[in-house]
Amino acid sequence: MKFRPVRGTHDIYGDQILKYNEILKVVSHFANISHFNEIKTPIFEFSELFRKPLGEHSEVVLKEMYTFEDRNKESITLRPEYTTPMIRAAITNNLLDKLPLKIFGIGPMFRRERPQKGRYRQFNQINFETLGSEDPYSDVELIILANDILNKILPNENIQLNLNTLGDKNSLLLYKNALSKYFEDNSQNLSEDSKNKIKNNPLRILDSKDDNDIKISKSSPLIYEFISSESKAIYDQIKNNLKSLDIKFVENPYLVRGLDYYCNTVFEFKTSSLGSQDTILGGGRYDGLISTLGGPDIPGIGWAAGVERLILLMQNINNLNKSVHIAVANKNYIPHLLKLTNYLKKIEISYYWNFKYNIKKSLSNASQNKAKFVIIIGENEFNNQYFVIKNMLDGQQKEINLEDIKDYINDKS
Ligand code: HAM
Fold first, then answer.
1. Is 335 in a helix, a strand, or coil?
2. Is pTM, for the whole model, over 0.85?
3. What single DSSP character describes residue 113?
4. Exposed, middle or buried: residue 22 (CB in 10 Å: 0-12, 13-18, 19+)?
5. Quick one: 345 exposed, middle or buried, by C-beta within 10 A (0-12, 13-18, 19+)?
6. What is the pLDDT of residues 195-223, one digit of tens each?
7. What DSSP designation does 262 have?
8. How far apart (Å, rounded) are the C-alpha atoms in residues 170 and 172?
9. For the CA of 268, the nearest atom of ligand 1
10. Res 277 pLDDT > 90
11. Ligand 1 center to residue 359 CA distance, Å?
12. Which of 78, 102, 279, 280 to mutate to test the pocket of ligand 1 (most atoms within 8 A of CB)?
């Protein structure tokens, strides 16, 4: 019997793992210089952590969570997102004593969506959160951080920052009522899915990918008619700060995000290179969420980026193999090979040998693996106790003594 991976899951190896590790490196670097501390939480939590905060009528909660009953009848869910577990962890471990708390996390999330390019059932997210600051500068700081990380990972990609405000909780309530009324009046051509959301979650109709829903949404009331002057002032401040840094953005009044906990600032970084899964990174402010989860009444803001989407967009990494490949012509030359490997270990140069006593095959293997240097042990080399080193970049070969290998490699690297 041949096992296949579960639908919507994938293995990460080869070029992809190089890109994955490069992403981790860039993220850790920027987290470090901006003073965000890493946190890792379990991949499963009690289901209640997600149901209400994400929205009982959101797609994620309605259709996508991997929820199961544990043997002691407790409902458990594989985390579909990282914001609520990170807040839970901050509360559990008393990390909210000193504010603001700036944290980041990277790891797998689980959503039972229809798999397609850029959309998986297990995928990895990079997640940054600032808890405990209502200063609009904290919004700006996180947007700049997202912008810096994306520019570093995808220097040639055309990425567009979409920005919107949902106003404060009160404005949002007025807006939702107006939307419900509008969609009720225009319900004839709405999809069945959207009709079911008119009363409970009209914001989610604005997310719909159905053509008719999109057409009807285009004439729906806009949040700007409902937001308070305070929310508007904050939004203006954020936009002005971004402009002063020359960070380009478009205002998108239909950007509402797919989870229920947002208010005020929301944003997404989008690309046109990924088809319908065009959002690389999304986030926003979630004042009220922390207290809903049992913490103090403090605001928060954050974002998450999909690692698999970044990998799909990344250029190949020029991965010249750092290890020295070895080519041996005959089993009898092993003692000479052992001298060489002992020496390479001592000078901390990694090596690779494929156990094939065939110089031609070992050289072709080295070139497939993009090795920079090959050390050859043939009859002459064994009889006269020297080596031949081949520089695979320019094809030149040189006879060399063991103790000169270090200088040669350092010179040519
Ligand atoms: P989200 O928009 O649901 O937000 O997900 C953020 C990002 O995760 C998406 O933009 C996308 O790149 C990636 N993503 C989501 N679902 C999938 C999937 N099925 N396959 C591959 N990639 C996917 C959140 O999760 C919020 N917790 C973000 C946040 C943090 N808001 C505040 N803080």
1. helix
2. yes
3. P
4. middle
5. exposed
6. 999 998 899 898 888 999 999 999 999 99
7. -
8. 5
9. 10
10. no
11. 50
12. 279
Q: How many other C-beta atoms lie within 10 A of the C-beta of residue 361?
A: 12
**Exposure string over 288-305, b if 16+ CB within 10 A, otherwise e:** bbbeebebeebbbbbbbb
| DSSP helix/strand/coil, 351 | strand
The residue ranking higher by pLDDT, 275 or 271, is 271
pLDDT given for residue 319 in this prediction: 64
Distance 366 CA to ligand 1 centre (A): 40
Nearest-atom index, ligand 1, CA of 129: 33
- Note the pLDDT of residue 146: 98
The confidence score (pLDDT) of residue 56 equals 84
Kindly report the protein residue whose alpha carbon is nearest to atom 25 of ligand 1: 81
Query: Is 231 close to ligand 1, i.e. is its CB under 6 Å away?
Result: no
Residue listed under structure tokens 């990174």: 281
Q: Which tokens in the block code for residue 319?
A: 């991965």
Give the long-range contacts of residues 292-296, CB within 8 A, separation 24 or more: 292/52, 292/53, 292/261, 293/49, 293/53, 293/84, 293/87, 293/88, 293/91, 294/91, 295/87, 295/90, 295/91, 295/96, 296/96
